[in-house]
């Protein structure tokens, strides 16, 4: 499989260190709010990567952290602690917020058919481990104490900016443009490993350490959780592109300083989901969630399908119109699968099976080209293979695509066709239009009218359904 490696900035053959086995690490969510569908784009594409690796026979062990402490509102070392901000917003404790949004995150993942990683580790459960590694960095001379905090000394590295061409001067421009300068740092790029002098007196979660009571920096969390669970060599590390700097850059700095050798061979970065007004972000407070998609009548798997239609290394623009197009395409695809459900006593057409399977694998072998993998599903539908062969192929492809293609087609085929009167269909259409225009009051009014005429509108995973009461 060829995969683009952000570290070398080229497509490379993916070769795990140990034949047949892959260690994979994923930066998990900061659980101070719901995951927005931009975050979930990253997790969908990482899920496809993991599932495709498993599909090709690799034994993948995947680990994810849950950031429940230490992530400040700037990805550097300034700003509020995001968790504390969330707790204040909701008048709850940090741990209550963490539990609530961790559960919400995995509920969303389930709806999007995103597999839970083999190990999920909340940062707050690893404090001893962070202290152990920071102590080792101090002993090795890679970390120093200043103003009560422990910093990583980036000047001790031969090359710090591994992903891009930033220089200290570039960073200084950033500082002038408003990022608060921390006078304790010896070098502009240095970053905090352990805070004791927090600007936030109300910081709820604090732990004893050799340097005083405090809490860990965000970057050290991922290095320690990865090394502890996956060992001192990591095959592939995943995350959204915004994490490349400073988060992943800092992870590499501290992990390699600690280990004394290179750490991770491949870096997989998913580009952003944007809206017309820019990157979707949690901190802006304006973001779309899976629940909102459901409230508007979209099966979450339509969003997964929408993501798969474009390449993970391109920015993807979200709009309701784009999502509607994906919905229409998805529904048409399902309707083409329904006729394949018959024909049970057929034999597998081995030649066609191999040919079409190769097409699917070629698409994903080429830097995870998911839109071509979907084209491979259409190639199956168009082929001369018998229904059984087609069904087998689509079932196999769906182990990676995760779109419930066969199940959805079966469910739709089993739904008894009830003749819905034209008047009701017309009202349902009017209601859909009202919803599109966000006139929810009118939509509800039409729904009540439909109900008084003996029919019920139901939002299901397959879309809007009309049933006779
Ligand atoms: P966070 O919960 O903020 O720590 O982010 C979780 C994951 O979502 C990280 O891998 C981010 O890089 C990624 N991410 C954040 N915003 C977006 C976006 N608009 N599109 C895609 N991925 C994103
Ligand atoms: Zn991370």
Describe this structure in words.
The protein is an alpha/beta fold and 469 residues long. It folds into three domains: 17-270, Rossmann fold (3-Layer(aba) Sandwich); 298-412; 422-468, no CATH class. Helix content is 45%, strand content 16%. The protein contains 16 helices and 16 strands. The chain has a five-stranded parallel sheet with strand order 5-4-3-10-11, sandwiched between helices. Strands 6-7-8-9 form a four-stranded antiparallel sheet. Strands 13-12-14 form a three-stranded mixed sheet, with helices on one face. Strand 10 (234-240), helix 7 (244-259) and strand 11 form a beta-alpha-beta unit. The N and C termini lie far apart (52 Å). Bound molecules: adenosine monophosphate and zinc ion. The site of zinc ion (ZN) has 3 residues, from loops. The site of adenosine monophosphate has 19 residues, from helix 1 and strand 10.
């Amino acid at each position: 499989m060829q995969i683009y490696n952000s570290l070398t900035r080229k497509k490379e053959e993916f070769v795990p260190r140990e034949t047949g086995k892959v260690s994979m690490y994923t930066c998990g969510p900061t659980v101070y709010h719901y995951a927005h569908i931009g975050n979930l784009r990253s997790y969908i594409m990482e899920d496809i990567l993991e599932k495709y690796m498993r599909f090709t026979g690799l034994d993948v062990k995947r680990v994810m952290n849950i950031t429940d402490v230490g992530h400040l509102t700037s990805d550097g070392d300034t700003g509020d602690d995001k968790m504390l901000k969330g707790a204040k917003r909701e008048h709850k404790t940090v741990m209550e917020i963490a539990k609530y949004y961790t559960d919400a995150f995995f509920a969303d993942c389930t709806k999007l058919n995103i597999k839970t990683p083999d190990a999920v580790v909340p940062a707050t459960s690893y404090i001893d481990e962070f202290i152990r590694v920071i102590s080792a960095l101090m002993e090795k001379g890679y970390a120093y104490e200043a103003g009560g905090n422990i910093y990583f000394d980036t000047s001790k590295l031969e090359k710090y900016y591994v992903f891009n061409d930033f220089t200290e001067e570039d960073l200084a421009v950033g500082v002038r443009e408003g990022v608060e300068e921390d006078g304790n740092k010896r070098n502009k790029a240095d970053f905090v490993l352990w805070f004791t002098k927090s600007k936030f007196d109300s910081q709820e979660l604090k732990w004893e350490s050799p340097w005083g009571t405090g809490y860990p920096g965000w970057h050290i969390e991922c290095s320690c959780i990865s090394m502890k669970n996956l060992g001192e060599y990591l095959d592939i590390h995943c995350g959204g592109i915004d994490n490349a700097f400073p988060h992943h850059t800092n992870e590499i700095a501290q992990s390699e300083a600690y280990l004394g050798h290179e750490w991770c061979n491949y870096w997989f970065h998913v580009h952003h989901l944007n809206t017309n007004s820019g990157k979707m972000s949690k901190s802006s407070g304006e973001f779309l969630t899976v629940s909102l998609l459901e409230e508007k009548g979209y099966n979450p798997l339509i969003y997964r399908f929408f993501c798969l239609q474009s390449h993970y290394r391109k920015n993807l623009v979200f709009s309701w119109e784009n999502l509607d197009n994906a919905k229409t395409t998805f529904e048409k695809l399902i309707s083409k699968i329904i006729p394949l459900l018959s024909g049970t006593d057929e034999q597998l057409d081995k030649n066609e099976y191999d040919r079409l399977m190769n097409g699917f694998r070629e698409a994903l072998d080429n830097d995870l080209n998911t839109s071509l993998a979907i084209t491979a599903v259409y190639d199956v539908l168009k082929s001369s293979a018998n229904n059984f062969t087609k069904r087998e192929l689509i079932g196999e492809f769906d182990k990676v695509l995760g779109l419930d293609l066969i199940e959805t087609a079966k469910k739709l085929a089993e739904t008894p066709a009830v003749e819905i009167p034209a008047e009701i269909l017309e009202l349902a259409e009017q209601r859909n239009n009202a919803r599109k225009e966000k006139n929810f009051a009118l939509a509800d009014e039409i729904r009540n009218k439909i109900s008084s005429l003996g029919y019920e509108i139901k939002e299901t995973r397959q879309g809007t359904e009309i049933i006779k009461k």
